[in-house]
Every structure is written in C-alpha cells, then in structure tokens.
Amino acid sequence: MTSLHRLVLVGLLGSACTAPAIGQRELVVRDLQIMVPEGWGVTWDPDSTVLLFPPSDRSTSLRISGLTAVSPRPLVATAARDWLRDSRKIPAATIETLPSGASMATKDSVFTETGVLVHIRFWYLAQAGLPDTLHIGIISLAQEVKGVGDSLRGSYVAAAEHLVRTATYRRH
C-alpha cells in the first residue's frame, strides 16, 4: 500500500459565495478557486457540496466538491497523477497536466436514478501541496437524457471544461 492510500482526510468543503447570477464570479471550494459560468445559479446541496445550474434548465447540474488529504509521509512530485491512476483507476495515458500544475482526468457514466436516465461526466482535479498535502476536486456535470447513447449538451460541457481548466488551488 502506497502512502497515498493512507492519506488522512482533512475536510470536505470550504466556503463559497452565493452572489446573484450576474456575470462570472469567483467561488472557492476547499481551496479550489473557480469561476462560475456567467448566468449560472449557485446553491448548496444537502451534502454540503456546491451545486451550479444553467439558467432555465433544472435537468442539468454541475456539482463541485473538494477534499484535502494529508499523508503521514512526504509526497513525491507525481502524487496527484499517482492518486488519479491508483484510486480512480484511470489509465496514466489519459491523465493530463494542466498549466496550473494540477493533474486532470475525466470519466463518463450513464445510469438510472429514480426512473430518470442520467449522463454524468466527472472531472477529477488533483494537485500535490508538498510536502504532505493532496488537494482533490471532483466536478461532475449531470444531465437528464432520453437514451443511453445521448451526449451531454455541448455548451454545458464547454462551460464545465473551462471551469475545470481555469481552476486553481490557493496557496497558503
């Protein structure tokens, strides 16, 4: 078992703004700083994650959660990629390093929830805060679909992708 598997979770969620949906605005979730897409609403889900939703579309949501893990031993520079590969079972070739230094990977899933067919895309964003901290952001876009092969709406995917790619972890 690697030291990544023995990380101690520090907490699930930080603070967030709930400003009116006028223009883009900053949101901070467990040290993950993002920009809310213009016009999207912001609310808290009962499990204390942040939920974003596009204007006039209640069949789609963008959920943002985060956690910070602390290792009992110093982490190596590849800790974020290692976590994505080992914990999320993501092939190393599909893990991307962003300009921010964070590692990112995506996974799609289609399932039925309370009789409704849902397509969901997960973005996993991980960044090591050396010497011993790993920041993990989990961003998921969920949309009601008619059929298993239906795609997520392109404009929503583009907004979520932009949010993920421009997200940064605040340094203390």
Describe it for me?
With 172 residues, the chain is mostly beta strands. The protein has a single domain, classed as Protein Transport Mog1p, Chain A (3-Layer(aba) Sandwich), CATH 3.40.1000. Helix content is 13%, strand content 43%. The chain has two helices and eleven strands, in the order ββββββαββββαβ. The chain has helices spanning 79-87, 154-166; strands at 8-11, 25-29, 32-36, 41-44, 50-53, 60-70, 96-97, 103-113, 116-129, 133-144, 168-169. The strands form two sheets. Strands 1, 4, 5, 6, 7, 8, 9 and 10 form an eight-stranded antiparallel sheet that branches. The protein is globular. It starts with 7 loop residues before the first strand and ends with a strand. The model is unreliable at 1-21 (pLDDT under 50).
Mean pLDDT: 84
State the assembly state of the protein chains: single chain
The CATH superfamily is known as Mog1/PsbP, alpha/beta/alpha sandwich
What value does the Rg take, in angstroms? 16 Å
By CATH, the architecture is named 3-Layer(aba) Sandwich
Largest sheet: 8 strands, antiparallel
Number of strands: 11
- Number of helices in the DSSP assignment: 2
List segments where confidence is low: pLDDT < 50 over at least 5 consecutive residues: 1-21
Query: What's the helix-strand series?
Result: EEEEEEHEEEEHE
Strand content: 35-45%
- Helix percent reads 10-25%
The outline comes out as: globular
Based on secondary structure, the structural category is mainly beta
| Number of structurally distinct domains | 1
CATH topology: Protein Transport Mog1p, Chain A
CA-CA gap between termini: 29 Å
What is the CATH level 1 assignment? Alpha Beta
